[in-house]
Amino acid sequence: MSENRYNTIIVGGGMAGLTSAAYLSRAGQKVLLIEKNAECGGLVNSFTRDGFQFDAGVRALEDAGIIFTMLKDLNIQLEVVNSPVSLGIENEILHIENRESLIKYRELLVKFYPESQGDIDKVLRNIRKIMKHMDVLYGIENPMFIDIKRDREFVFKKLLPWLPKFIFTVGKINRMNMPVEEYLQNIVKNPSLRDIISQHFFKNTPAFFALSYFSLYLDYFYPKGGVGKLPEALKTKISEYGGEIKTETKIIEVTADKCLLRDDKNITYRYDNLIWAADLKTLYNITATEGLLPRTRTNFEETKTRFLKNRGGDSVYSLFLEVDEPLESFRKIAHGHFFYTPYRTGLGGTHREELNHLLSNFKKYNKEQILSWLDKFTKLNTYEISIPGLKDAALTPPGKTGLIISILAEYDLFNEIQKAGWLDEFVAELENRVLNVLSNTVYPMLKDKTIARFSFTPLSIENRVGSSEGAITGWSFQKSMPVINKLQNADRSVQTPVPSIFQAGQWVYSPAGVPMAILTGKLAADKVLKQAGKTKSS
After folding, report:
1. Closest CA to 385 of 450, 441, 326, 335
2. Apex CA 437: angle with CA 431 and CA 438, to 5°?
3. What confidence score (pLDDT) does residue 466 get?
4. 3-state secondary structure of 493
């Protein structure tokens, strides 16, 4: 066995791991970032097929006062464009341009649900309040990426005036932590209207987080060349600072008392500190704690039990299309980031009660019954549609268009069907239905102009990213979250029961997202540097 020694080893080359590695290598530490895939980025990734470039994870990025501040602090130049959003119901499409688009959004909803005008006004009043809270929340550059000891102007002109507003706003946010479904049920009587507003959110998404979507739509941006340009830029910066990156390497064992890792090629690595920026269930399953203090071992086992009895949140099914139709045909219909609901009815119980019954009694359902359920699921759903070429025309061959069509998907359904032995058939049926729904409604050209197609399922996400249950935003939302879920406590989210092991990424804070993954990566790096400073002084 060969062995390597580092100040800090980071496992997981997603946005959290890349951020930690960049800051620690800049600070002069001997750093190794280990990623199991051939490329870094995790769910922020782009790839090319047949001359079409697609995004494998997120379709656009929101700054949230974090991303641009981090890029500036690390002196990274990233060319970006705005990523405007369109919303559509049946044949009515709204292009969101600014805050005044809320008025048109109201008109859109009233047109389809005229009897619910009063309830629509209540929802929009709440959205406006939340937008004001978001203005405060992301009103300044995140101070975690500012050297406040040197930048006194930032401290006195921005940070200190902002802090009281932030504390007040956090209190407001915490009072809107109930699931969005429950929140809307209290103010919206029409179940179809509730669905249209909320069915594209993850199950039990906190109301504040869900209803902040209008602010997020206005904040979306897209890196020229695809979302994968962001992790590429960080990877380059890590190399500039002297950090090492090792891809296609999977860590299979952590020996905590010896600060030792072992990979799938039987190579071992010693660390002073470890940042685990990957799936947390994996960390707790492969870590040996013999030799640690009894209290540390007990805390570790209690935390492990808590994590293992919880599960990841909703996953996503994505259909990728290569279409022999110019970008202009699609530009006339909607922006390159488009949330579209083909029918005003909404999903109703299709994706909750009916699906739960199906999964609880899976062996009693035959293929025809499952496909009948799939008919409703695809017809009544809300689709997130991304067209990279409408954001950057260089990402698609001349005269052609690439589309990414996504819907929320239940990991357990795909898993059960795989075990039943007909996953490929099910995916083909799903592809056909999605194509039929969209070609019969908003994009008729898809019927005859689609030249190639392929899919990513929740199982694909689990296999590629190593994310439990194929989750894309960490833990399933529930009353008792297994991790920190309040902003004022975010600093504690990166700690584990083992003093030399820290954690970062989508699994350590809820609700998760790219900005939060970056923030936890920075917080973990800061903890490591603080600990290293204490060790030196002692």
Report:
1. 335
2. 90
3. 86
4. helix
